[in-house]
Design a protein that fits this description.
Elements lengths: L7 E11 L2 E7 L11 E4 L2 E9 L2 E6 L1 H6 L10 E6 L18 E11 L2 E7 L4 H5 L9 E4 L2 E4 L7 E6 L1 H6 L10 E6 L1 H10 L3
Antiparallel strand pairs: 1-2, 1-6, 2-5, 3-4, 3-6, 4-5, 7-8, 7-12, 8-11, 9-10, 9-12
């Protein structure tokens, strides 16, 4: 379980294919504090630490994860938002984030708001996906590349988020431009409500 409050940006230093799996090795400030089997969110995707070296660690993504997220697009040198799992009893500064990315979205616009930035994203949707809770609501929560954000101006297949300078400087939002593919996780509360309605 995560909160969507990014701890650091890790840098991809190696990518190794192993059948349909891919091993990613990353450098980040807290790498030496990690243990084998620990969960870390990478652009919002919960992955397990499988190997550790001084200053770096390795995680493995399986085929289903690669197809559903933007991890398969990563290249050596790319920056990745990372967050360790929440501590029991800690503050929930963002919102409840599972680390189970639902799908990707494409950035369609970035607007400079005189210091802050507004990003517009478009995602694929169907009536069935919406019935299962894969949608955004105005002022609701959404996770974009692992960052807990507030939804603005949602439509059936788009939404906007506003990024303050601190978030821009300390997450890979600084690398996002029109055409960039990001990971999104819709609010778990909406999914449970949508599922409950199926029993009415």
């Amino acid at each position: 379980m995560f909160s969507g409050i990014v701890e650091a940006m890790a840098r991809v230093v190696a990518i190794e294919k192993d059948h349909t799996n891919v091993h990613f090795t990353l450098e980040c400030p807290f790498a030496d504090e990690l243990g084998i089997d620990q969960s870390v969110a990478h652009n919002g995707v919960c992955l397990t630490v499988v190997r550790r070296e001084p200053g770096r660690y390795t995680v493995t993504a399986m085929d289903e994860t690669l197809r559903r997220s933007n991890l398969g697009l990563l290249r050596v040198g790319d920056r990745v938002n990372v967050e360790r799992s929440m501590l029991l009893g800690g503050r929930l500064d963002g919102h409840i984030v599972q680390g189970h990315v639902d799908q990707t979205a494409e950035c369609t616009a970035v607007t400079d708001e005189d210091g802050s930035h507004t990003y517009t994203f478009r995602y694929q949707t169907t009536p069935d996906m919406a019935r299962r809770g894969y949608f955004c609501v105005d002022k609701g929560s959404v996770t974009v590349n692992g960052v807990s954000l507030t939804v603005c101006n949602p439509t059936n297949d788009t939404f906007q988020v506003c990024i303050i300078p601190y978030t821009f400087d300390n997450t890979n939002f600084c690398d996002i431009q029109p055409g960039t593919v990001v990971n999104i996780e819709f609010d778990i509360l909406g999914k449970y409500i949508a599922r409950l309605r199926e029993f009415e």
